């Protein structure tokens, strides 16, 4: 069968691209359903974009690459689309937009757009072989137990990254890109919890608090969550994209509070109060108990010297921890790195050396922060390729 365009991957980017490229477009996916990551995203409500999305929220070897696509299909364009489909939404925090209802509304919206523009979707379809000649691409596909050959002028790699292999993530886009001479930068799990030697934070599992989490390259003011395996929560997921094995992270447990002055003032007015009790007014009590032996948190406020209070405030505003690793691909929300942007046009996502070959979405070396930015990249890059086709 002959198609103008074949898109490998019916995820966020692939469906958005198909909704633009329309008739003559075939989207294939080995999964049973399209947009599975959309379905489970944002706790089932899909954080589909961010009001403040801009190039500064993305990591890439070339930080300028994402600018063109993001500027030509913005968060406002996607919000318009969502509004046209009468999907109600709300802003949570930090500009993050979520569906009021279910994330599947976004999947249904993209399917409806694909249908409207006449794109075809084949699910449970695997690529068995791929050839390239002067007339374009030939794909041998395994579909419903039968071999089917299709040809196309444009081939779009939209099969995503390596995160959550259990959900069907594969490195197919990277393998095909390499076959065509494109470079793939180092890939790493990102937006992923940190692990610590077994049991280290077990007594704190479930405790969550706002922190400032930083390393020399980045700093995030968001929530931290202690887990049986280590540390999670938005602040941790954010910093994981900037972390390298063996490095320390710095946790300010009392951001925005001058704890020294606060404790001094409390000592003046309530000297008989236990130091632990006073600290538990500013931090979760379980955390204070956990830290007490190491930081020698004991006695009444009146017993603490200025030097002692200063040292305590210093320790709590710069708790240094060294993760043993991350939870890896099993739980990472995204892949850092991917198809090198040097080989792609930032306007169209087409490979500079292989006319008709496009790479979009997470497969490209463009990775967003936590907060709806990764979907915005999928929409913007998918739109750029779809409009060019
Ligand atoms: P995506 O992974 O969506 O799609 C790739 C498609 O290709 C899949 O349908 C897959 O089945 C298919 N495929 C893979 N290999 C194939 C093969 N060999 N043959 C055929 N098909 C193949 N982002 C955000 O902005 N807001 C959020 O709320 C969240 N939440 C979130 C939660 C969780 C748990 C995860 C894992 C991730 C998120 N993300 C997110 C990230 C977001 O899901 C991600 O950035 C986009 O889905 C990337 O879109 P793509 O279309 O590039 O890949």
Automatic annotation (TrEMBL):
Its cofactor is FAD. InterPro entries: BaiN-like, BaiN-like_dom_sf, FAD/NAD-bd_sf, RsdA/BaiN/AoA(So)-like_dom, RsdA/BaiN/AoA(So)_Rossmann. SUPFAM superfamilies: FAD/NAD(P)-binding domain, HI0933 insert domain-like. It holds the Pfam family HI0933_like. Residues 188-334 form the RsdA/BaiN/AoA(So)-like insert domain. Residues 4-387 form the RsdA/BaiN/AoA(So)-like Rossmann fold-like domain. Keywords: FAD, Flavoprotein. This is Flavoprotein, HI0933 family.
